[in-house]
Amino acid sequence: MLDLVGPAEVFAGVNRVAKSRPRYRLLVASADGGLLISDSGLRLDADTRLSSVTGRLDTLLIAGGPVVEAMRSDELVAEVRRIAPRARRVASICSGAFVLAAAGLLDGRTATTHWAFCEKLGRDYPKITVAPDRIFVRDGNVFTSAGVTAGMDLALALAEADHGIEVARAVARYLVLFMQRPGGQSQFSERLSHPIPSESAIRGVCDEIVADSSGDHSVPRLAERAALSERHPARLFIAETGTTPAHFVERARVEAARDLLEAGRTSVQTVAEQAGFGSDETMRRAFLRVLSVGPADYRARFGATHLHVVDERVAS
What we know:
By secondary structure, the protein is α/β, with parallel strands linked by helices. The chain is 49% helix and 11% strand. The strands form four sheets. Strands 5-6-10-9 form a four-stranded mixed beta sheet. A two-stranded parallel ribbon has the order 1-4. It is globular, with a radius of gyration of 23 Å.
């Protein structure tokens, strides 16, 4: 439901703020034009059937849903393919990117979707360059966003393009939104996994890195543990994890630090030492590379200590 009402609130906010300019008019269309039931159980009446949409459109915006396969019906994809050329711009929110992809509208473009579906989008549609950490992506007149609330970020960007920065800023202030959200969507995602075959020579090495991120994981030590020459592990890492040993170790340390930052009050310096970074500055640079947000900001958003303080205030 947020894929629909989130952007709708942004566009309604523009109508309130920019009263002397062209106003947005939202038309909700579905395959059958009937009642829409969201996965949360909330209901919304569609204004019309997709087959009834004719003439020129300003923006075609495809909302997402939790079941990707259900969204790629032949009827829906065919209607989107028919309507898209009539629109000045085309956009999707969350898994709505799969509808655009099935319609061929993302071929040769860069796009994003909810972090949970990025790997599937790239696998199902190899002609698309998937940007898994972006909140939203513009490629020509086609826009795609990450999941759920990211649709509001996208709508705000569209509003800024149409009405200017001051109008967009006023709407963001009213809706208590970031004008530009800090960091990418990987800061919200589940821990990334590396499915390495059990018979791989580096499987045990990778398991050791994840289990003890603070250990000595230099290339000579990795080679020694895997009983390989020093050049061989690098080739195997790239082939089987898609990254270098150094980047794999860095990511494992970031994941370990995330757990520590979320769990308690341990100082950032201590977290850096326990995760294997050595210094808080080294950890800060790694967080910015991997998550596009610093350790202190990450803890402020996701730390259990912060949530506990809020709970105590509510209880009192």
